[in-house]
Amino acid sequence: MSTKYAAGQPIPAIVGPTASGKSELGIAIAIEFGGEIINLDSVQVYRKIRIATAKVPPSEQQGITHHLIDIVEPTENFTAGEYARRASSSIRDIESRGTTAILVGGTGFYLRALMQPLFDSSPTDPALRRRLKEINEKRGAEHLHRILRRLDPTAAARLSPRDWSRNMRAIEVRLQTGNLISDLQPRTPEPPDFADRIRVIALDPPRDLLYEKINARADRMFEAGLIEEVESLLAAGVPADAKAFQAHGYRRVVEHLMGKRSREDALNQMKLDTRRYAKRQLSWWRSRPGVSWISCFGDDPRALADAVRLLAGGSDKRVERRLD
Questions:
Q1: pLDDT digits (tens, 9 = 90+) for 169-220
Q2: Are both 203 and 97 inside the same structural domain?
Q3: Is 306 within 8 Å of 294 (Cβ atoms)?
Q4: With 0-12 CB in 10 A as exposed, 13-18 as middle and 19+ as buried, what is 278?
Q5: Domain range for 138
Q6: Claim to verify: residue 33 and residue 112 sit in the same structural domain
Q7: Measuring CA to CA, which residue among 189, 184, 157, 186 is closest to residue 85?
Q8: The model's pTM
Q9: How far is CA 181 from CA 111, 156, 159, 175, 324, in A?
Q10: Same domain, yes or no, for 203 and 300?
Q11: Do residues 174 and 231 share a domain?
Q12: Residue 250 domain-assigned (yes or no)
C-alpha cells in the first residue's frame, strides 16, 4: 500500500555510483509513495542510445511513470541549466496532481543546478569541455583547481579543489568570455521554492562487489550489441564527437570503430573508465552537505526500509549493512 502524498513533503533524490541499484530503489520508493520518477542522469536524456545507458526498459518500470528520458537527440548539447528548467517543471506538475516526485540518477551537477540555479552564461564550447574532462580524468580535480587559481583566484578560493564540475565551468567562462565567474555569480537566480525539501539519499555498496557488478555489466553490454548500436548511429549521421558519445562505454566503442582500439581493449578500458567514474561519483557526493548514506545496493529490500525511515525524519547517520 502506498503512502498518501502530503503537500510540502520531502522530495527524495536517490543518488550514488553507477551500478549501485539507484533505479531499483527509485522504483521501490515510487511504489511505496505512489510517486513518479524524474531522471537525474545526463546520458539517459538522449534518444537512440540505449545499451550503455542502463535505462530501465518499460517492461521493468512496474507501471511507474518516468520523466526526462529520451528527450533530446544525441547530437544536442543538453546543458545542466536546461535540465534544471525541465526538472523544475516536472516537479511542479507532478506535485500539482498530488503525487510524489522522485529524482533518480547519479549526475551530481544536474542536481546541483536544480537546487542552486546557474547564472546565464555563454554556451559551452564542446571542444574545450572535452579537453578539460580529459585533464580531470588523467590528472584529477586538484589539477583543474590549480588551473583555475591562475585564471580566477577569487573563484578558486571559494571552490573545493575536489569540486571538478564547478572548477571546470569557471575555467570555461574565463577562457570563452574573458570574464571572471566570480564577477558573474552575483546574478545567480534564487533557488526554487522546493529546493529545501529535496532529501538526498546516496547508495554506497561494498566497493569490491560494486566493481564486480560494473565489470559484469560491461560484458553484458558488449554481448547485447553495443558495438552494433554505435555503428548504426554513426551510419545514421551522428558525429563521432557527439556529446552523447562522451559517455562511458560509447567513447571507447567509437575509438574501436575508428581503428584506435581492439574490441578487447575497448571493453577493458570501458570497465576501467566506469570504475574510476564510480569512485569520482562517491567522492563528489561525500563532498556535499546533507547527504544521507545507505551502505548496500538499491535492490536489497533493506534499502527501501532505510530510505523510508530517512525520509520520515530518521537519523541522518550512515546506515551500515552487512551482507549475510
A1: 889 988 988 888 877 766 667 889 999 999 999 999 999 999 999 999 999 9
A2: yes
A3: yes
A4: buried
A5: 126-187
A6: yes
A7: 189
A8: 0.81
A9: 20, 10, 12, 11, 50
A10: yes
A11: no
A12: yes
